[in-house]
Design a protein that fits this description.
Blueprint (H helix, E strand, L loop, with lengths): L10 E6 L3 H12 L4 E5 L10 E4 L2 E4 L10 H9 L4 E3 L5 E5 L4 E4 L1 H15 L3 H4 L10 H6 L4 H6 L5 H15 L8 H9 L5 H9 L1 E3 L3 H10 L4 E4 L3 E6 L4 E5 L4 E9 L10 E3 L3 H9 L6 E8 L5 E4 L8 E8 L2 E8 L10 H8 L8 E6 L19 H10 L1 E2 L2 E3 L12 H20 L1 H7 L2
Parallel strand pairs: 1-2, 1-12, 2-9, 6-15, 10-13, 12-20
Antiparallel strand pairs: 3-4, 5-8, 6-7, 10-11, 11-12, 14-17, 14-18, 15-16, 16-17, 19-20
Helix pairs in contact: 1-14, 2-14, 3-7, 11-13, 14-15
Length: 445
């Protein structure tokens, strides 16, 4: 490639991206004695997790919650002696029934959702009897062309139940449901033994003590990898002898193997030479996590609450998280990042006013992950057909190149747990390639 700078020191492994997948892989590889460089385009670690100072306090702008049903991240928390902090237990619930906002206890909201969601998810364990082998089920192949929208509309439920169930799954997908893979919804709930309530608890109930940054820093500090920031990888050349990883500034790093942990939607920014046509096809089809996450500082202190709106609202779910200095700090989610600017207080106020709760927004915060060139998506959620057409391709080894990240997890795709899983499996596969299978097994001890 013309215009590149002098080749830097060669490494055994180049890891592209310093999110959880990249950090885990770097730790495992360096502990096995390999020379590893981590190349990160941003000026921080953490990827699509980001603990940042807002409202005079730290808030999670990206991924946040963890749970003991998530084995990989739970093991990492135990490894570093990091605990969890519960989100507040809601005392009130509000939901849109198609005509007006209904107020009740949180159990009332669960009761409206329970029958329809139980019916929707009744085949979760049948379709995914081994939830950490996501693409192995014949039943999953048969269902992978069906959307969540179609599955919900086929249920014999009331309009209110349809509205709430649709909003619930638009929240989970952080996107619209017309092309949302029903298999992805079943896969999530299969991971909590077919119990949708436990799954919901896993999604938004327990945070990492000290924030996601505490865990990311613990993993980074347990590694001897060379971590370089501000290195935006735009081209990866690979052949039988080596890999050349080239930045937008023409910097070149050579390695025997490369692990690419870039979010799938951002992979289109990277040119592979020779090209990887099957990987490119997966990125063209894309996923559905294209929504928004917004933090709001509300006037006054309010008892903990949750509110669920319509699936097509700019914000379709909110829950209160903190009380601070006479204000209530609330987090909200919406299915379409283009429909709401998290930095526009008046627009966020208008979105909140759809519930007609009399709450006043004083300040807002958020990060547009969909417009972020290094992400271009929030948490990854499959389109119809993705599981059977693309997941195995992205999990496979392509010569000296392997992919990792929550996007390609076999288990908890869309969660920190999925990123940790693929960091471990990616590192093991690379060690197998470098040293043979005995070396890969030895490194796992």
């Amino acid at each position: 490639m013309s215009g590149t700078s002098e080749v830097r020191d060669a490494y055994d492994v180049a890891v592209v991206g310093a999110g959880f997948a990249g950090l885990i892989a770097a730790r495992e590889l360096t502990r096995a004695g390999k020379r590893v460089v981590v190349l990160e385009a941003r000026d921080r670690i953490g990827g699509r997790t980001w603990l940042a100072e807002r409202f005079g306090m730290p808030v999670e702008l990206g991924g946040t919650w963890v749970h003991w049903s998530q084995p990989y991240v739970w093991a990492e928390l135990a490894r570093y002696g990091i605990g969890i902090v519960p989100s507040p237990t809601p005392e009130r619930a509000f939901w849109w029934n198609g005509t007006t906002t209904v107020a009740g206890d949180p159990q009332d909201l669960l009761d409206v959702l329970d029958g329809p969601n139980t019916a929707l998810m009744e085949r979760a364990r049948e379709v995914f009897p081994l939830p950490f082998s996501a693409s192995a089920s014949t039943a999953a192949v048969d269902l992978d062309g069906r959307s969540v929208r179609e599955a919900i509309d086929a249920l014999p439920i009331t309009e209110e139940q349809n509205i709430l169930l649709s909003s619930f799954w638009a929240l989970n997908f952080n996107g619209r449901l017309d092309h949302a893979a029903f298999t992805q919804a079943l896969r999530w709930v299969a991971l909590t033994d077919g119990d949708w309530k436990t799954n919901w608890e896993a999604c938004a109930s327990y945070k990492v003590a000290g924030g996601t940054r505490a865990l990311a820093e613990a993993i980074r500090d347990d590694s001897t990898a060379d971590v370089r920031f501000g290195v935006d990888i735009r081209r990866i050349e690979h052949d039988d002898a080596q890999v050349r990883v080239i930045s937008d500034k023409g910097e070149v790093v050579t390695a025997e193997q490369v692990l690419v942990t870039i979010p799938m939607h951002a992979l289109s920014r990277v040119e592979f030479a020779p090209g990887l046509e099957t990987v490119a096809a997966a990125t063209v089809d894309g996923q559905l996590g294209l929504g928004t996450k917004v933090w709001m500082s509300l006037e006054g202190e309010h008892a903990p609450f949750v509110a669920m709106g319509s699936a097509d609202w700019p914000l379709n779910f909110i829950q209160s998280e903190y009380l601070r200095d006479g204000r209530t700090i609330v987090v909200g989610f919406g299915p379409d990042a283009a429909s709401l600017d998290a930095g526009d207080t008046s627009a966020v106020q208008a979105a909140l006013d759809r519930w007609d709760l009399g709450l006043r927004v004083v300040e807002t915060a958020g990060h547009d992950w969909v417009s972020d060139p290094y992400a271009q998506e929030t948490w990854p959620m499959h389109r119809t057909g993705f599981l059977t057409s693309h997941l195995a391709v992205l999990r496979a080894t392509h010569g000296r190149i392997r992919f990792a990240g929550s996007d390609v997890a076999d288990g908890w795709g869309g969660f920190i747990d999925g990123a940790v899983e693929t960091g471990l499996t990616g590192a093991r596969a690379i060690l197998d390639a470098l040293d043979g299978r005995s070396g890969g097994r030895a490194a796992a001890r």
